[in-house]
Amino acid sequence: MPFRALIDACWKEKYTASRFTRDVIAGVTVGIIAIPLAMALAIGSGVAPQYGLYTSAVAGIVIALTGGSRFSVSGPTAAFVVILYPVSQQFGLAGLLVATLMSGVFLILFGLARFGRLIEYIPVSVTLGFTSGIGITIGTMQIKDFLGLQMAHVPEHYLQKVGALVMALPTINPGDAAIGVVTLGMLIFWPRLGIRLPGHLPALLAGCAVMAVVNLLGGHVATIGSQFHYVLADGSQGNGIPQLLPQLVLPWNLPDSDFTLSWDSLRALLPAAFSMAMLGAIESLLCAVVLDGMTGTKHKANSELIGQGWGISWRRSLAGSPRRRRSPVLRQTCAQARPRPFPPLSTQFWSSSPSSRWLPCCHGCRFPPWPRCC
Description:
This protein has 374 residues and is mainly alpha-helical. The protein has one domain. The chain has helices at residues 4-12, 17-44, 49-66, 81-112, 124-147, 158-167, 174-189, 200-216, 224-227, 263-295, 301-318, 330-337, 345-355, 370-373; strands spanning 74-76, 229-231, 237-239, 326-328. The strands form 2 sheets. It has a two-stranded antiparallel ribbon with strand order 1-4. Strands 2-3 form a two-stranded antiparallel ribbon. A hairpin with a 5-residue loop joins strand 2 (229-231) and strand 3 (237-239). Helix 2 (17-44) crosses helix 3, helix 4 packs across helix 11 (301-318) and helix 10 crosses helix 11. The two termini are 37 Å apart.
């Protein structure tokens, strides 16, 4: 049932000022994690960083309202980078948008057919092997930017990619590598300090501080503002992230798009769309099971799948341009659950945090060092 979680939260239980405070705390906490992560995964998927922020704003709200788990937070998901990047390279941004929309339709059909509980019968070994392979692939993809390697072309196949990275090691950029090591170190060791603030914001600030030192010493570090540019409808250009809402346009009518909507193109995108839907279903339902154990609640698997599908469909209709897939993310969900919020309202607060980034404050998003964000 759509909006079941919202109905339970607002009508069946009393909403008080203290719960509102917990919602705000939980939303801001997850927003701190989501903003740099959304930009990083958009870059990793082969699109500009603003598309990650659009996704966080639109889909986070819709999925929270229509999903079947009260505590799940739908955020940027690194696992989909492996699937989305080849699609964007082969079919362009328009093909990426259409494939993701198709995956949303698949998820809605899964929920209507009551396939939600069937996910529980997938062997744990299959899930662990699948996710481990994705993690290794993503880690390998980021070595180039992490170390600042100079590579004119990155091979498509994994073993060839590893060989090309090894051959490019002599071109390592010490400044980029220093920022990457400091940022990664903060993410790893910050939780050991016992501070409840998530380590993503301190890591981002530490990386920016190292970047300032490197620039003072005469080095050069690429930033989001120096690597990404945009052109508005009136012809004006800018660096970094635009401060305007995206235009509403059909994917096959995107500027400079050579994608043609046809049966052949849909058939070519079908395997990738089905893979996205299956991966999204598995990840979202596994996340909901973990949250049930943390909060003592019981999620509704089929409603969760329908909510995921609706979130993707509405995102495609409202955000106007291609982005990455979204599904519940355990790290963000746990960060929201710790303050004991009153979902799904707390998710609306965190979804508002990324949305503010394309308003005047998105000017500051130009300055973080972009390779380390990934």
